Each structure stands twice: as structure tokens, then as C-alpha cells.
């Protein structure tokens, strides 16, 4: 590894840039492949940064790029202060940050503090040291139950299916809330806390502008003996949090976690400008506000919005509640439609309400059949709605191309550990992680000189950047226009709902007349007075068609 001895001076930049930024999520293994081995890499990201700049993004969020065996797509980290050799080197990372800053892009990196890889040097030391050792105290090791310790210490369940405990040859069990290859750290251990302080400084010193904190609500755990069983309480679902006193779950969203983030904030604020952070915390809104407080991470993902169906009443309520939650923390709201963990919204938004998405994926996307044209139309409308809302918009790679989910990946090519961990019952997240199409031809549609680590369908050619670049009406050009306009229009962090809009139409004003109207009906509706600045689909005889959003000035 190489070390950087000076901190880049970013003092001339707006310290509050993140409050209403458009952040583009890069899943590096699927973005661009510079060396032709079929796996995306850091140099590939650097070579394609002009795409993000031309799009109008303010920042890129880089999903995990650390050394990993990919037991969970890079979220099993073997070394928090290095780059996976298959993805490049620290010098490659530095070059990427330099180029991003030259183009006016901020850089946010993923941080995975709840668990390490089982290949991490600490876990290997713990296995070798044996029961009762100091090395095991960095993790959560316990003796099993039963006459011979043959039963797991508790009934806690892994997010990926099955018990959250794995037994090692000497008889003890270790906790893994996710894959067995991802042992949970013990955050009551001083050495764990100090190591992550070092990691925050390491990347901040290299010019990183912020951090996305993975599973931010899981670090603190109630490990007092005897450990508590959950009984019939859902162990991995948000509903469990609603059936316990706030902060009362043994490992989700405990109050003690906030002490950790207050400590982190002192480090992040020691830089000029302060480094930002955003929490991935799957918790109810009022609890989410705690993570977004100014003396903690400052911002938290809003998953209620992502999970809301294409319904005007539900969306209006979620938007109102989300803004209220953000204001309670003196933070800005966050909005997201797709990411590396969910079905892409160009497909999801046209699935009938109540659809079992896993069953749909297992059917190859055929049961029920999805209307791709309607899906794209809704996706474009949803995007303009999201970009008009106060706060930060997080855009997942490929959504600017209108990519739908690749739902028909053959079972034999699946890489997501969920598939095997659940006994091949849950298909997993590979369908939203298929490498991007850049060109209309070639062995991997411009992703790299070779193939791609997940197979790309032939229809990707029509969605490629090359096919949409400069094409009037294309989704790519819609995003470019919207982001360019958004920068000119953006002021303040408030909205006012129009009082006289139809029940199935979302209509709000931001400031100085900037108005956003979204028609969620199945018929065209009249537009309010004002200059039409942009529409997600062409107007129909001067009317706003179904599944269409318009910006008015």
C-alpha cells in the first residue's frame, strides 16, 4: 500500500454540498472493465467519469472496492484500507479521486462496519487463538446450547436465511447477521472502535468527501448474558422493530449505536470541509432521524419512498412524512428509486400491488408479465418527481438508461449468496447488478474488451449509452436535461402542496413558481398555468398524459 502524506485542500467548496446533491451510485464490478477480465475495476470507473459529469451528477458513491472473496458482492471486507487487486491499486484509487475532483465530482465510499470477511486477519487470528482468547473478543463468539453445545446460542436468524450462528471446529459459535463469511464485529471492543477511526482518517486523507455507512443500525448489540431469544418475533424484518420498545431489539437499532456515530462525527468534522456521511438504516422514520442528526452522520437513506407503490395518496404521505423526519434532525431528506439491492424501478413500478418479487424473479419475470413500455414511462415520471423534491437524490447506475431488471438470469449463473444460503429459494439481487451497456455491439456492449461476469441480454444494445447519446427523447437525454435544469432551479428545502389538485395527481410548488405535477391516473389531465420546462413523456394535445411528470416555471 502507498500512503498519502497531505490532505487535499477542499476548503473552497461548499461544505453543505450534500444537502441537495444528485449522487450517482457506482457498483464498480458492473460499471466498466478497463483490463478486459470481465470484472469492472477502478480504472474503468475513472475512464467513464466523464459520463457522470455530462449527466450532471454532483458526486459518485462507490460501492465496496476493498479486498474481498465476493461472498456478498464485496460487502465481505478483508482489508478496509486497500483496494481489491482484481479492481486495481491504491494508486488507481487516488487517480480516480483526482479525476473526479477535476471534473467537479465529489467521491463517497462505502464503509462496512458491522462485519468483516472471514478472511480478515482479525478473524483468522480469532480462529487460531481459540475460546476465551483476546482475539475472539473482537467478534461475537459464544458457547452453544444443548448437552454438548451442539445448538446455536440463540434463535437469531441471518438476513440471508438460516441461523445467524456458525459453529467452528473447537465447538464455539460466532454471530453472522448476514452470510457465514461475514462475522459480526463486537462494537463494545475498544480495538474495533479505534481501527475504524483509523479507517475514516485513511480515506479522508486520500481526498474522499464522504461515507455511506452500510447496515448502520446493526453495530450495537445487547450481548449481556443470557442472550435473548426472539421467539416468534421477526428477526430480520422491520416489523420486528415496531413490536418492541424503541431501541429494544437485541441487535437492530439500539440506542447505544449513536454514541459510535457521535465519535465518528468528531473525526469527520476535523477536516476542511467536514466529510459527509449517510446511514443505511432500515428503521422507521422517527428513529431514522436520530442517525441524521448533525452531531452524528448527518443524513440517512429514506427507504419508505423506495418501497411506496405507484399511488398518489401513498406517495404524498411518504413525501410529507420524510420531509418532517428530515427537518426533525435538521438534515435534508434523501430520495432513491433503485440501488444494488432491489429490483430496478423500471420493472418494479409496474408489478401489481402485493406482487411477491422473489416469485416474480423465479419465474424469469414472466409471472406476472411486465409491460416494459409502461415501466419505462413510469420510471421516467418517477425520476422527475424525485428530482423535484427537496433534498438529495441517489441515482443507481443504469437507471439513467432506463434499464429494467434482468429477471431471467439462468439459475446456473447466479452469484448472489442469497441463492445458495436460502437453499435456492430466493433468487437474489443479480438482476440489478448486470454490467452496464455502453455500446450497441461488442463482446460485452462496451463494458470491457472481454465478456462480463454476469451475462448481458441481447436487448441491452437498445439501452446502451451509444444508442441514447444525443437521441431526442431518450431516457439518457431526459436525465441530462433534468439535472441541468435542477441546478438552475434549486433553491431552499421546502415545498408547498397545491390545494386544488385531483386526488390522483401530485402537484407541488418548490419556490418562485417552480412547480412539479405528476399524473398517476389512467387518463390525460389539464396542466396548471405556467411555462412547461420539461416533461417525462410528450404532452398529449396540451394535456399531461398518464404516468407523466411535468416541471413548470
Q: Estimate the strand proportion.
A: 5-15%
Percent helix: 25-40%
Give the end-to-end Cα distance, rounded to a whole number of Å.
Answer: 52 Å
The average pLDDT is: 94
Q: Total helix count?
A: 16
Strand order of the largest sheet: 8-7-3-2-1-10-9
Low-confidence parts: 1-12
* Number of strand elements: 15
Q: Tell me about the biggest sheet?
A: 7 strands, parallel
Q: Return the structural class.
A: alpha/beta
Task: Give Rg in angstroms.
Answer: 23 Å
Keywords:
553 residues, 7-stranded parallel sheet, alpha/beta, single chain, disordered N terminus, 5-stranded antiparallel sheet
Write the layout of secondary structure elements.
Elements: E1 22-26, H1 42-47, H2 49-55, E2 59-62, H3 90-102, E3 106-111, H4 121-129, E4 141-142, E5 165-167, E6 173-175, H5 190-205, E7 210-213, H6 239-242, H7 257-268, E8 276-279, H8 285-291, H9 303-307, H10 312-328, E9 334-336, H11 345-348, H12 357-362, H13 372-388, E10 392-396, H14 417-421, H15 465-468, H16 475-489, E11 496-497, E12 505-509, E13 515-519, E14 532-535, E15 548-552
Parallel strand pairs: 1-2, 1-10, 2-3, 3-7, 7-8, 9-10
Antiparallel strand pairs: 4-6, 5-6, 11-12, 12-13, 13-15, 14-15
Helix pairs in contact: 5-7, 8-10, 13-16
Q: What do you see in this structure?
A:
It is a single chain. The chain is α/β, with parallel strands linked by helices. It has 16 helices and 15 strands. The strands form 3 sheets. Strands 8-7-3-2-1-10-9 form a 7-stranded parallel β-sheet. Strands 11-12-13-15-14 form a 5-stranded antiparallel β-sheet. The N and C termini lie far apart (52 Å).
